[in-house]
Structures are given as C-alpha cells and as structure tokens.
Amino acid sequence: MNKSILIIDDDIDLCTLLGRYLSRKGFDTEATHTGAKGIAKFNEKKFDAVICDYRLGDMDGKDVIAAIRKQNPNVGLLVITGYSDIKTAVEVIKLGAFDYITKPLIPDEVLNILHKILQTPPEELGQERKTRPVSEAGVTARGKINNPDFYEGKSPAAKALYDQVNIVAATNYSIILYGESGSGKEVIARSIHQLSARKDKPFVAMDCGTLSKELAGSELFGHVKGAFTGALQDKEGHFELADGGTLFLDEVGNLGVEIQATLLRVIQERKFKRVGGNKEKEVDVRIIVASNENLRDAYRKGKFREDLYHRFNEFSINLPPLRSRREDIPAFAEFFLEKATTELGKKVTEYEDDVMEAFLSYEWPGNLREFRNVIRRAVLLTEPGKKISISSLPWEINNKNPLTTREEDRSGTEFTPAAAITASPELKEGDLKSKNQLKDAAGRAEFETIMSVLKMVNFNKKKAAELLKIDRKTLYNKIKNYQSS
Ligand SMILES: Nc1ncnc2c1ncn2[C@@H]1O[C@H](COP(=O)(O)OP(=O)(O)OP(=O)(O)O)[C@@H](O)[C@H]1O
Ligand SMILES: [Mg+2]
Asked: What is the DSSP letter of 49?
C-alpha cells in the first residue's frame, strides 16, 4: 500500500507541485491550505507523515505542530521554514519535528527526508532523536567555549558572532564560515564542535586548498590497498575519521568539480565507499566548511555546484576582519600578551602608549593570526620587566606605511590584497624634485609592492619571494634595508 502524506501549506502552487512530485514517486498525498483544516484532516484520517509550513495564514506553525503531535506523538513531521531562519528551525526540532527544510524546496531533498522518516520506527519518532542534539541548555544558555587559546572579544560584532555560534552549535546544521585569512574560521569551527553534542567525538580538519585532484577522493573517503599506484595499504579517509563528530573542510571552494559531485552524493546518502573499494560505509558527520570567497558567487561563476552550496548553506557565519572590530584590539592585545609571556616564560606586562596607537591604526590584513604573531615577536624582543616599545613591532606596523595609514584607505570597509596592490599612492610630478627624491620614490614604490605581496600571501616570505621573482635572500635584504632606513 502506498504511504500517505499530508501537506499543509498556504502556498497553493507549492502544494500542487509537491503533491504531483510525490505521487509520481508512489505516495498518496492530500493537501490543505490552512492550519485548522490540516489539523482536522489529520484527526479524521491516518497519515504516515506530515509536511507542514511553519508560516501559515491562519495559525502559528507551532500550534499546528503541537496539535498534530498531541493527536499522534509518533508521527513523522517535516517542517518547511523560511530561508535560514535558524531560531525557528531549532524551535521546530524542539517541538518534535523530525527535520526541517528551508525554502526554496528541492523536491529530492523532501523525498530524501520522507524516506528517512518512513524508515524510522514510530516509537523513535516520538522520542528526542540522537542525531538532533538540541538540548534546552544548548539553545537557551550561552555555552562556555572551553579553550584556553580562545578569546571572545567584547565588541558588538564579537557578541553577534558568538550569539550565532551558540545557537547553531546545538543543531546538526551544516555551516559555511566566511572570513579573511587569520580571522579565526578554524577556531570558530572548533568552538562550534566543542559546544555541540558531538564534542566527545573527533573534530577533523581538512585543507582543501592544497589538495590535488588525484588525492582529493582518497583524502576524503580513504582508499583500499592497490586502488592506485602508491596505495600500499588500506587507508581511512577524513569522513571515517570524523564519524560521530565534525568534519571541517577549509578552503572548500578549491575542491574540483568531480569530487564535489561525489561529496554531494555522500552527504545526501550518508554513505560512501573508499576509493577502489566496494563496501558501503555509513557515517554520521556534521560538516562545517570555510571559504575566503563567497560560494554563491562561485556557483554563479560555475566554479562550485549550486546543489552542494545549498547543502552546506544551512547556516552561514561571516567573521568580521579585525579592522572592523577595532574596539576589540586592546582586549586582544592583553590576551595575546598574557599568552605570549606564559609561552615564552618572560615577564613583560605592558605596552608603551604609542604601541597601542599603532595597533589601533594598523589594518591587520592577517587579522588575529597576525596580531598574535606580532605580539609574540614583540615579547621576544623586549627585555624582561620593560614595557613593549614601538621599536619591537615589525616594520610594516611601525613604519607608518602610507599604504595602510592613509585615512581614505582606512575608511573603506573592505580591504583585499588586490585592492592593496592597486591602491598605491599616486605620485605627482612636483614630488620628484631632486634625484634623491626620485630614489626615495622608487624605493617607496618598491617597498609598497613588496608590502602588498607580503600581505597577499599572509607574510609568507617564501611565497612572496616566488611571486616577486626574486630569491628569498634578496627579499630579506630589501626588508632589512627598509627597516634600517
Ligand atoms: N577568538 C580567538 N581568540 C584567540 N585567538 C584567536 C581567535 N581567533 C583566531 N585566533 C588566532 O588566530 C589564529 C588563526 O586562526 P584560524 O586558523 O582560525 O584562522 P582562519 O580564518 O582559519 O585563517 P586561514 O583562512 O588563513 O586558514 C589562531 O591560531 C589563533 O592564534
Ligand atoms: Mg584556516
């Protein structure tokens, strides 16, 4: 006998389309367009599952769910919520829905969830599900991020960020983290894992940025001995390693198109095979991805699969760059100072005033990572018991680089390495009065080019030298010359 599905949605077109689609897939469907009628229908007839919109014209979705669950606590409920409306979605799960789905609906996704509902024993549908670890505490109380290397910050931007982290941690949603290099994407991913019910299971990070096309499959899904040249023994992939826990895919935009297709299938089916193997393995993995570029733009440009993007984008978090949360700079300066002095076993407790000024006016292209490194270096260069002085800061900060301290550059909210390269200050003819000034100008231009490239590669001098097509020693010498001039 066909399974019967009740659809409650005030969007008549959607009901018709979904109804037709599900009938083609072998279901019997009935649709009602108000909450009240939906409840009445449910009371008069037995349904195997209910698909219900959370925003109905006549009733609150909450009350519809409650009424249906009261009638039959073991019914499988799939709730349709507004786009990325996380609070509602969490609430819906708490109310006992099996799952939620966001508009626009992807029919295959609906079908997939329906299959899962129908495969779950009814008694289990009535219980709180293991895979939906939404605890009262997780949602309402702010969890403490238990990591001594982590500092939250006090700015409104920081507060907004950690509110989101706290809310989403309690769910199983896939998350996209956007943010510049060094802004703390991995730190946030770990925090989300730690605050989640998966915290006792592994957190596995994988850098997709450095992955070759050939190895991507084996890294993600493992391989069996002999699968390819060099596969000398069976190997577990990151998915298996992260089973029960969280898999963090860094620089996910760099994954090749082929592996994106495989990944999509694995996420949909929660099953995979090792490369060269034929045994299916099941995994329960929460996925968090990070990207420097906007994945929506990437799929529009055809570089990223749109369906995979939607899978990942159950929730997204934008990490602010440090320069847009300058209020946090003094507190981070204290935090990193304390860390560095403990690490290095050195008693340095204060900054000279102009150091803090320099921190506050610098652009921090490498964000928190750069800030931490700058402070470590300064502590190393400071004598015990003395205050940190401006001379212990790296040249790009204490040199008052015109590129980064000009007001018009600072007022821009977005700073990209590409912008840095094109934003060199214009030189006017009158500026070049003497030979010396010409030399200065040339030196300054060179200084700026080197700075821009260094920023672009996050101060990786090896990479910068490669890009500038000079050897590393020449780069070091040039930097030294600027510092001493
Ligand atoms: N909230 C924080 N509290 C303390 N330190 C932090 C925080 N966020 C980031 N950091 C510091 O910055 C470093 C870089 O953070 P992380 O690796 O998470 O950045 P990322 O955004 O993943 O960078 P990339 O894009 O380069 O991979 C961390 O190792 C840590 O030292
Ligand atoms: Mg990272």
From this structure: E
Sorted by sequence, the CB contacts under 8 Å of residue 192 that are 6+ apart come out as 165, 168, 169, 175, 246, 288
**Residue 336 sits in the same domain as residue 255:** no
Atom 9, ligand 1: residue with shortest CA distance: 184
Choose the final residue of a domain: 275, 297, 318: 318
- Pocket-forming residues, ligand 1, beta carbon under 6 Å: 149-151, 179, 181-187, 250, 368-369, 372
**Which two tokens mark 450?**
């080197």
Task: Please give the residue range of the domain that contains residue 379.
Answer: 321-398
Contacts with 14 (C-beta within 8 Å, 6 or more apart), sequence order: 105
Residues whose CB is less than 8 angstroms from the CB of residue 98 and which lie 6 or more positions away in sequence, other chains included: 76, 77, 78, 113, 116, 117, 120, 125, 129
Average pLDDT of the chain? 82
Distances (CA, A) of 364 to 275, 360, 392: 42, 9, 17
Return d(Cα 137, Cα 197) in angstroms, integer: 11
In single-letter form, the type of residue at position 283 comes to: V
Note if the pTM is more than 0.85: no
Ligand 2 is an ion; residues with CB less than 5 A from it: 186, 250
Do 172 and 309 fall within a single domain?
yes
Find the length of the chain: 485
**Are 479 and 414 within one domain?**
yes
If you take atom 15 of ligand 1, which residue's CA is the nearest one? 184
Q: What separation in Å is there between the alpha carbon of 65 and the centre of ligand 2?
A: 41
271 with 371, same domain: the answer is no
Contact 189, 373 (CB under 8 A): no
What is 130-142 written as a DSSP string?
A: TT----HHHHHSP
Among all bound ligands, the one having the nearest atom to the CA of 178 is 1
Per-residue pLDDT reduced to its tens digit, 170-202? 889 999 999 999 999 999 999 999 999 999 999
Q: Is the pLDDT confidence value at 393 over 50?
A: yes
Q: Kindly identify the ligand whose nearest atom is closest to the C-alpha of 372.
A: 1
Residue labelled with tokens 């301290």: 405
Q: How many domains does the chain fold into?
A: 4
